[in-house]
Design brief:
Layout: H1 3-10, E1 26-30, E2 45-49, H2 50-56, H3 61-70, H4 78-88, H5 93-109
Antiparallel strand pairs: 1-2
Helix pairs in contact: 4-5
């Protein structure tokens, strides 16, 4: 899946900060990082700005959301919730389990509203 296809599906805003940046400053974000076994399958990809993608590195979704919340940002967006729901339905068991676990942790964490 290309960046353009993910932008068409998810929109042109960063999943983490919500900013709309120049296309050259957007990246494909792996919800389950490649370093943790994540693959470039459509349900594992979303759009992030380069700054957030670099800052998150290979941390979990929940860890990065908590980091942003401590900084005073409201990082959880409708797009992030939808992406985790999509990942939870993946045919790839590791991806689906990661998506379900991260979504459950976000909902219980109290750091952000994921309605």
């Amino acid at each position: 899946m290309t960046l353009g296809e993910v932008i068409t599906r998810d929109g042109a805003a960063c999943v983490w900060c919500g900013r709309q940046v120049w296309r050259r400053d957007m990246t494909l974000e792996h919800l389950l990082p490649r370093s943790r076994g994540g693959r470039g399958i459509p349900e594992n990809l979303t759009v992030a700005c380069r700054s957030c993608n670099r800052r998150r590195r290979s941390g979990s979704v929940v860890a990065y959301v908590r980091e942003r919340a401590r900084a005073g940002d409201e990082p959880v967006t409708r797009v992030l919730r939808e992406a985790l729901i999509r990942l939870s339905g993946s045919a790839s068991r590791p991806h689906a389990e990661y998506g379900r676990r991260q979504l459950a942790l976000l909902e219980r964490s109290g750091v952000a509203n994921v309605d």
